[in-house]
């Protein structure tokens, strides 16, 4: 039996306010962009920082929550799967976009600390609502001390 897993966990800050729309069949979809950074030392021992930008797509009730509560600069934790879409561009060339389709999200602190500390689960996914998970797993969950903060000034948008 071959194993297969497509799971992504992203903790970062929104680079822009959520963009929300409704599909023709009435389903809500919200798009966000999240910046994550990592700090490392180069071969000369100098501290370097690398920023990655992630496109996130959120569907249904979770999309409504994201649209209502998320703002540019806010911390967020996304759990989802990686998906690549393709389409034909106006120039006839094949275009590709890799994104994370959110299955759950947790709201973090807003810019300037306007909300509570840490992450608060948002509804919509069984994973974010599972009360039967052992308490020991909570000790391994990332805390604000474990996550290097992305400063809003560092986001180039």
What number is the mean pLDDT? 80
Q: Supply the CATH superfamily name.
A: Nucleic acid-binding proteins
Count of distinct structural domains: 1
Ends distance: 45 Å
Large-scale geometry: globular
Descriptive labels:
157 residues, mainly beta, OB fold (Dihydrolipoamide Acetyltransferase, E2P), 7 strands
Quick overview of this protein structure:
The chain has about 160 residues and is mainly beta.
Topology:
Layout: E1 8-14, E2 19-22, E3 28-41, E4 47-59, H1 60-69, E5 75-88, E6 94-107, E7 120-121, H2 126-129, H3 135-140
Parallel strand pairs: 4-6
Antiparallel strand pairs: 1-3, 1-5, 2-3, 3-4, 5-6, 6-7
Structure in words:
The chain is mainly beta and 157 residues long. The chain has one domain (8-154): Nucleic acid-binding proteins (OB fold (Dihydrolipoamide Acetyltransferase, E2P), Beta Barrel), CATH 2.40.50. It contains 3 helices and 7 strands. It has helices at 60-69, 126-129, 135-140, and strands at residues 8-14, 19-22, 28-41, 47-59, 75-88, 94-107, 120-121. The protein has a 5-stranded mixed β-barrel. Strand 2 (19-22) and strand 3 (28-41) form a beta hairpin. It is globular, with a radius of gyration of 17 Å.
């Amino acid at each position: 039996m071959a194993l297969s897993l497509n799971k992504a966990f992203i903790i970062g800050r929104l680079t822009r306010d959520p963009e929300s729309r409704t599909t023709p069949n009435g389903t809500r979809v919200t798009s966000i962009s999240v910046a994550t950074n990592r700090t490392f030392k180069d071969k000369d021992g100098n501290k370097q920082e690398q920023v990655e930008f992630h496109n996130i797509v959120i569907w249904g009730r979770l999309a409504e929550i994201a649209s209502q509560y998320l703002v540019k600069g806010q911390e967020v934790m996304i759990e989802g799967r990686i998906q690549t879409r393709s389409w034909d561009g106006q120039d006839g060339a094949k275009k590709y976009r890799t994104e994370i389709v959110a299955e759950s999200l947790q709201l973090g602190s807003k810019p300037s600390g306007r909300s509570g500390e840490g992450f608060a689960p948002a509804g919509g996914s069984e994973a974010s609502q599972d009360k039967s998970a052992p308490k020991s797993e909570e000790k391994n969950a990332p805390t604000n001390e474990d996550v290097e903060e992305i400063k809003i000034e560092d986001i180039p948008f």
